[in-house]
Amino acid sequence: MECLIYLLKVTACTVFFFGFYMVVLGKLTFFKINRFYLLASLLLSFIIPALRFEVKREMPMLETELVGMPDLKPIQPAPVQLIQPIMVEYQPEVTSKIDWVGLIPYAYGAVALLLLLICLWRLFVLLKHTGSYTKNSNGLKLITKTKGFTNCSFFNYVFINAAGLSATDLSVLLKHEQVHARQYHSIDKIILMVFKSVLWFNPIVYLYDKALEQVHEYEADEITSADYGSEAYANLLLKLAIAKSDMPLIHNFVKSPIKDRIKMLFHSKTKNMKKLIYLLALPVAVGLFWLFAVQVVYAQNIKEHKKPSKDFYKGALKGKVLDIKKEAIGLYTFYLLSEGNVYPIEATTFKEKIKVGDELIVYISAKGFNIKKTDKNGKVIAETKEPIYNATKVTTLTGSLIYEQKIENHAFLYEANKARSASSKIKTIKKDANGKIEKIVLNDGFFTINLNLQTQNIKDDNFKAGDQVLVKFIGEKLVAKNIYSTDKMIVLYSEPKKYLIKNEVLYNRFYFNDGKQKAAAIKNQPTEVAKPVMPKIISFSKITGDVQHKVSYMENAVIDIVNCRLEAGYVELDQLNGKMIAKNAVLKAKEGGSATAKIIVFNLKDGSYRAENGEGKLGVNIHDAVLEKDFLTKLNDKVEYVANDSVKMSKDRFIISLFGNARLFYKEIRLSGAKIVYNKKDNTVLVSDATMTSGDNKVKADSLFFDIKTKKAKLYGADLNR
After folding, report:
1. Structural domain includes residue 412
2. What is the pLDDT of residues 159-213, one digit of tens each?
3. 584-588: long-range pairs with CB below 8 Å, 24+
4. Residue 67 belongs to some domain of the structure
């Protein structure tokens, strides 16, 4: 499609250049200069749109005011993981629809190629007649011909029908064709033939061809009539005017309009001073160059403006994009100037949709935080120089949506032992006359879980409505939209863990006394080993393939693989080698969760894939993906963590990153924040937008570093009075 846009720009250039020729230059008798202008302007029409230059301009500081902006609820960034997949069988039946827009480049190319082949065929036909000739003293190769194209020339080949021509007439004709040969006019004809094939849809290129041929004839007529007289030459033109030819590569003596040629013979010559008129073509060329080849970049020295204050938490920013760049950690950020402050905002997923100078409204949900990139040993190899903000929504000033963060919510999560786990708040507690708990209703703002406890004979006064709790259970039933009910609660913890209600029978089935999970508690669950997977093609816009080598190439494909759906702009499926490559891909788990990458490579033999996005790489075995989906994971008997949105682990599983209302528990200490990074190897925890609770003590900070071994914490931007 970019090629077609380029050709449309070329067409626009030809319109302006030829319009200037027709209005200003067409009536001048400087035929050589006119010939040069026509050829040069046609070449420039192809060159100018292909050039790329940047002009940087300093952008003045904006004074902006937000009016009527809605209040925002904090939303956390949420890259999520995949869930437990199942095997599917390959189904060759596919449905597709024709992408008519995608066919346009192929249709254009087919027509252009056909016209080029026709041009080559005509050249071949013409050269067939040049085998036998007689060479005269002026170097012309004379070929006698009575039918078809006659009294015309191609380079120094002249095709003559001498019937009805006197010796004088023949001498005049040869003189005329000699001018064509010496000025190499046939090269111009070949160039125009190629241009007409490439720009076959552009009517202006045909006018170029006609104008250039007319200039050729004017030039030859001017030189020839100087030797034989204008009247005698005009009579010969009229005499041969009945001869016609449809061969576009030759110069026929009377092919161009006779009336215009005779008028030009008797037209007074243009004064040399008027050659200065050709300088007027320079503004036309400069204007087209500025329009199609120059991109104005509005830049500003970011250091001239102050960074946002640390107290900025959430809201909407209105401003202009100053710069877009790739950070050392691999992420892309753009710098937004708003009310005199510059905000670095993460833009990896939508960087192609914005450019420097755009005026945007950006919605921010939390404080910015520094991001570090570590190697396999946990050593920091790159980090951001300043806090980076996360945008939950980006629009234009008119409200057109550019990006919006999508958060997937789940009623509960699965642990490795198949017990369900949910973090929620107590909505109501119902007790009987004896104070025994009959029912506890939990609600996290999205989902409701009814815990029916009549049969468990529990009396407890520690839990109250409004408490934040962590519950584990099985046997749930969906009783209404977003409402679940179960009478098989395993354990209910307060957060942080201070009180609990436990069903001893179920707890002993799923957990050891120290809280570790019993994987053996899962019945009829065989040990999973790596096994092959087979993709199921759902749809595509175009497919081609190599039947012999069992390779298929698909565009805009939708494919089911295991329990996930793959949507990609391009897919290469190699069945023989058990490999599938997806570009510009989104991999979605059917029960929630997704991963976006520029390239995803699937190994169909063992069910693994590798996603590449910028400098970051992630390798996952699809059959073990349930472990990545378990947002609550028991690390050991001392440390637990949970996150509403997602948990990501490094390849060696030493670095755990938690996103979205993330919490980590260590004995009586509870850490929570927008993002938590836990290093199991060093036993350290880094929390952004942090809250630390220990007993009745509570402290908040912009960021927090906690050493599990020493139980010491370093607070940054702390507010001890909150």
Report:
1. no
2. 888 776 777 778 888 888 888 888 888 898 899 989 999 999 999 999 999 999 8
3. 587/82, 587/611, 588/564
4. no
